[in-house]
Amino acid sequence: MENTVSAKTNKFWLSVIGTVSVVIPLAVAYLFYSNGLTRIEGLDVKFLPHLNAVLNTATSICLILGFVMIKQKKVDYHRTFMMSAFVLSSIFLISYVIYHNNQLEPARYGGEGFIRYVYYFILITHIVLAAVVVPFVLLAIYFAWTKQINRHKKIVRWTWPIWTYVAITGVIVYWMISPYYN
Fold first, then answer.
1. CB 3.0–4.6 Å: which of 21, 66, 118, 173 could bond 82 by disulfide?
2. 112 near 75, Cβ under 8 Å?
3. What is the pTM of this model?
4. CA 66, 170, 33: angle at the middle one, nearest 5?
């Protein structure tokens, strides 16, 4: 059953989602490229790339299981897996920013030849789509939460594959660069 949300309520939340969707990538970029202006001295962040890989793996699993559950019409399980994926992705984002803001020397990919091009293709598409998917994920959650199911279904046709690609390629990037961590 499709819920009716007032136009005023929709407008408010859509503007919040729009704002958050711009602020998150800008904040990440600022913290990533601030040359440690907000670095926490003495904070050991060496374990965070490994944690991030675990978070991305768990997110991928939740996204796939959420997809399977909705295909089986198990809406409550679907909701649980999708919200778990959202929480895991949010924790990943915080951990990612902390790591990149506090590391002294960034890891550099050392692969050569064709594999280097593969790595950078995966990395660049991963980064671009990670920024692009933010508003889609927030809209999907909002439409589901407000029971605007038709709108939810329309947006998740794009959201789910992009989000899943971002989560899986995050793990692949980790595997490829992990030998080069300090």
1. 66
2. no
3. 0.89
4. 130
